[in-house]
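Workshop exercise sheet. Pairs work together: one partner reads the sequence aloud, the other fills in the structure field after running the prediction. Swap roles for the next sheet.
Pair: D.N. / O.F.
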Amino acid sequence: MTAKPEEQPLDAATAGMSAALPRADRRQAGVAQQVLNKAMEYSVVVALVLLVIVARILYPNFLAVQNIREIFSQNAELALVALGVTYCLIAGVFDLSVGSTAGLGALAAAAVSGHGIVVAFLAAIVVGAAAGSVNAFVVTKMNVNAFIATLGTQTVFLGAATLYSTAPITVSNAGMLNMGFGNTFGIPTTVLIAGVIFLIAGFILSRTVYGRVLYIVGGNTEAARLAGLRVWMARGSVFLVSGVCAALAGLLLVTVVGNGQAGYGADYTLDAYAMVVVGGTSLFGGEGAIWRTVAGVLIIAITNDLFNSLAWPGAAQDIVIGGILILAVALDAFARARRT
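Structure field:
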């Protein structure tokens, strides 16, 4: 049966509306997907803001200037360790020796402290670079899995530090002690030093060819190798970065406590990895950023400060921090699954 002429415009309009509705739905779905992706990308920032709000409600003095200063100063050393770990994870390797390396750096800095602050810094840097070079050689030249290699060197470095000195080495330079408790431009000196190192590391990672190479190597090692990139050199270099950062963390700790010991930094490894992973840097390589590590450091630091202020038992703190770490890893796995 032939449709009447006057019915044809109506049918055409109806057909056009029917075709337009799916397009509108698709646009709405696309916008929703973009919003979801952005929310996932900056979820750590949202979590940090919410945590600050909760902390302010539960602890009225949380935002007091003195409390904020203490949060930053008490976590400056650990933040440096987390910085080195960030470089390693982005490049697709693990460095579990950072705690022992921090102890080596602390001993080296304390041992030469009588010769001045500059010499102490140089000693820590040399020791950290040496430890990183050992890790790089074992992983890239001996082809030992990074996890196993650095688990072994962690014990080696701790043993070497203990053989060097079984007793604390007291700092003999007043300038170093003043640095640990002093302020520069109203900012704790240790925090300022860590902040400058973070800015330099962030610039290198996000604005240089070297930084882009690390992301490529960590994201797809085989593709990086086929593209002609020196994978062994890129991965070896991050062990040097991690070693130097850990040793400098040991130096900063020495300026605060006034002496160096082999066992300093023993608890840094797990805490540093927790901060980096909570910040959103992937355990699988190729993803992460320095600003994410800063956010992760603040989340863990604020959580610990809040629990201490509320006099929560240590066991409860461990449970909460462990739960946060598991949730962060689960979210990372979820995000990866959505992209594949």
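Discussion prompt: The domain at 79-339 is CATH 1.10.3470 (ABC transporter involved in vitamin B12 uptake, BtuC). What would you look at next?
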